[in-house]
Each structure stands twice: as C-alpha cells, then as structure tokens.
Specification:
single chain; mainly alpha; 5% strand
C-alpha cells in the first residue's frame, strides 16, 4: 500500500563525505609545477626590467650615449622577451591543468548519485564540464597573468616615481585607492547581474534540450510553434540580461579610465611646470612620465579585466559545488547467485523535500514471478522501483534481494543485475548492437541471443 506523507518520516541515509581528494579540489595546487614557478620568476624579472627601462630612458633624454641605448634595449626588449616566454610556459601549465580538471569533472559527474543527477539538466552538466572549465582556464591564462604582471610591476614603478618626484609616493597609492573605491559598487552590481544572466542561459539551454528531446512529440501534437516561440523569448531574455551586464561594465571602465588618466594629466602638467621653474630636470621628468604612463596603462587594463575575473571566479565556485557532491559508495557484498526473490519489510520513505512518501510498505515477490504495480500518478510506483536498484537510497533493513539487504550490496554489481526500461527511449550515437552492449566488447552471438530472447 502507498500513502502520501505531510512530512518526511525517514530520509535516505547520507552518503559518506569525500576524503581530501586532490581530484576534488579547484585551487592553486593544481598549478603547482616547477614550470609555473619559472614562468612567474621570468615575469617578475621582466616587469622589473621594463620598470628600470624608464630610468634609463630618462638618463638617455638627459644625455644620450651608445651605452645607454644598449642598456635601454636590454631592459625593454629583454623584459618583453622574458614576459612572452613566461606567458607561453604559463599557458602550457594552465592547459595541462585544465585538461586534468575536465577529466576530474567528468569523473565526478558520472559518479554522482542518481538522485542528484535527476535534479540536473544535461545542459547544466555540460556547462560545468565544458564552459566553466574553459572559463577558469581563460581566467588563469589571461586575466591572472595580467593581474600578476600588474602586481609585479607596480612596486618598482611606484618606487621609481617616488625617487623621481617625492609627491608620487602619495599620489600613486591615493589614486589607486580612489579607483578601487569607485569600482567596488560596480563590481557588486556586475556580480549580481552575472548571476541573473547565468540563470537565463541555463533556462535557455534547458528549453532547447527539452525541445530537441521531445521533437517527435512536438511535431505530432502541433506544439513545435509553441516551443520555437518559447525559445525565442528565452533568447531575448538572455540578450537583455547580457546588455545589462555590459552597460555596467562600460560605466566601470569609463570612470576608472577618467581617474587614472587624470593622474597622467596631472603628472604631465606638474612636470612641465617643475622643469620650467628649474625644480626638476628633463631626465627625471621623462622617467616620471613614462612610469606614470605604464602605471596608468596597467591599472586601467586590469580594471577592464575585472568583470572577466569575476566571471572566472563564479565558474570556480560552481565547479567546487559540483565536485563537493559526494560520489556514490563503492564496494560492498556481492549479489547472491541464482534466481532471487524480493522482500520489502515496513518500508517508510520520503524525499528530502518531504512532498511525497511511502509508508509501511510490505511486499513479497518470489523468484521467477512477474508482477505489475498499478496505481494513480504519483502513488509511488516509480519510487518503489528506484529503491530496488538504489537509484534512490532506501533505509537499511527494508529492501532485500535474495535475502541480502540491498544497502549492503556492491552498487555496480546490483545495477548490473537489475534491468531498467525507461518510459522514454534513449538511443546513443552508435549502432544498435553498441546500444545493446553499451559499447562493451561482447560476442555478436550473445547480442543476437539477447535480441531473440526479448522477441
């Protein structure tokens, strides 16, 4: 018998938490590699060389010599070459880490409990494994490299500007702090709108997936026009939310650019006035102007990258949530051999939401017998069948197969012995024989015998 419960009476036992598995982490340790360290050292030396090049350029403007020309070339060209070489090496490390992460995500997705998978659209899983992984890789390859270059370059540039003209010790951090204060409200708003945009993309992907999966039913029921209209509406919603994000990003870039270029203008005007009054020589003015130009350019470039950095951080958070889902349990007793009977004793079950349940179910099915569960929609027929294969986890001591509690059996072996035919026919890309064997190597005679037995 079945009954609907107002509140859960026995929730499925929780799966054991995952150990500190490196394949379940998304953090800096995936980039721990001697090549990555070498790339960062090259970046730091290159940034320092380019900063020192401004000092040499100032000396060159004051009194040009062949020695200074070669020294300037060494600083600028050498710094650029080191930056390029470091970036290529860094990209290689990121590519390998991205590939490993993609494999770990696929493994995690395929080993999620079935109850968890049923709550996720196929498109959502593909978004995590493909799009989010690519977004994290792009974050590390591009935005993180720009941020590191800025971090390594700011301190020597600040020091050079301060020694060239003492007010720069105050102006540089002051303008930087004001720029951060101006950008912070925009970053919070961009993050909020990015979440809304991501939800719109997920709805669009789910609707497209549903339309493709049910295309035959849509044609026969003349519902194709409705599906196309709904998809067009969701597409319009995606574009509208994307425009909202872009508009805030444009305002952020404009205000940050105005502040930073105001510093550049102030330095240029003040420098010319100081040189005219004899309080600053031409060499130091050139150095100060070049350092300020580089400082403004790098900070402005980083400001333009901040929305993409936020998107990448959001992808990291989503990947961590997916990897945090405990995998299905492994190991257990073997399924008894021979014909098996089914015994269900005092089964109480409800889903985590408590919206539906089975109460005090008792059922005996002898080995070799065939039964049919008949009942109204929502009465628990599918739930009862799912408990047998542990597609959802039954309470211990309630479901027995061949006298063995199914919760103690090896999950892979149990499902290999339990056949399931779903309401929807799913055909994978491949031959009919490959769909029957699920791409395992089986003798053709065995496949033909199985087809003949099914009639």
């Amino acid at each position: 018998m079945t009954d609907t419960l107002a509140a859960p009476t026995a929730a499925p036992p929780s799966l054991p938490s995952q150990p500190d598995d490196p394949s379940r982490r998304v953090d800096w340790r995936r980039m721990r590699n001697p090549v990555a360290v070498t790339a960062l050292v090259a970046l730091a030396i290159g940034a320092l060389g380019q900063a020192l090049g401004t000092v040499v350029a100032g000396q060159l403007a004051q009194g040009p010599t062949h020695h200074l020309v070669w020294l300037l070339a060494l600083c600028v060209v050498g710094g650029s070459l080191l930056d390029t070489a470091g970036r290529v090496a860094w990209a290689g490390v990121v590519d390998r880490a991205e590939g490993r992460l993609r494999g770990d995500l696929l493994d995690a997705a395929l080993h999620q409990p079935l109850a968890q998978l049923t709550e996720q659209a196929v498109g959502e899983i593909l978004d995590r494994v493909d799009d989010d992984t690519h977004e994290v890789g792009t974050l590390l390859r591009m935005q993180m490299w720009v941020a590191l270059r800025t971090a390594f370059g700011i301190l020597p540039m600040w020091a050079i500007a301060g020694f060239s003209w003492w007010p720069a010790w105050i102006l540089f951090p002051l303008v930087g702090a004001v720029t951060v204060m101006v950008m912070r409200p925009f970053l919070a708003e961009i993050a909020r709108r990015k979440v809304v945009e991501e939800a719109a993309w997920t709805d669009h992907a789910a609707a497209l997936e549903e339309g493709i999966a049910g295309r035959d039913d849509l044609r026969t029921s003349l519902g194709q026009a409705f599906a196309v209209r709904r998809l067009a509406q969701l597409s319009a919603a995606v574009h509208e939310r994307f425009w909202r994000v872009v508009s805030v990003e444009a305002r952020l870039a404009t205000r940050a650019g105005l502040l930073l270029h105001s510093l550049l203008i102030a330095i240029a005007v003040s420098g010319v006035a100081l040189v005219s009054s004899g309080h600053l020589d031409v060499g130091r003015l050139v150095t100060l102007f070049l350092v300020t130009t580089s400082f403004v350019g790098q900070i402005n470039n980083l400001a333009h990258q901040l929305p993409d950095i936020q998107a990448g951080v959001g992808a990291v958070i989503r990947l961590r949530q997916m990897l945090a889902v405990p995998a299905e349990p492994t190991g257990g007793a073997g399924v008894p051999e021979g014909p098996l009977d089914l015994r269900i004793r005092h089964l109480d079950f409800s889903y985590a939401e408590g919206t539906f349940g089975l109460r005090d179910i008792n059922l005996d099915v002898e080995a070799g017998h065939t039964i049919a569960l008949v009942g109204r929609t929502g009465s628990g027929k599918s739930t009862l069948a799912s408990l047998l294969s542990r597609a959802v986890e039954p309470p211990p001591g309630t479901v027995f197969l061949g006298g063995a509690d199914v919760t103690t059996l090896d999950l892979h072996e149990l499902r290999a012995r339990v056949g399931v035919v779903t309401q929807r026919t799913e055909i994978l890309a491949g031959t009919l024989a490959e769909n029957i064997t699920l791409f395992e190597e089986r003798p053709r005679a065995a496949v033909e015998a199985a087809v003949a037995e099914l009639g």
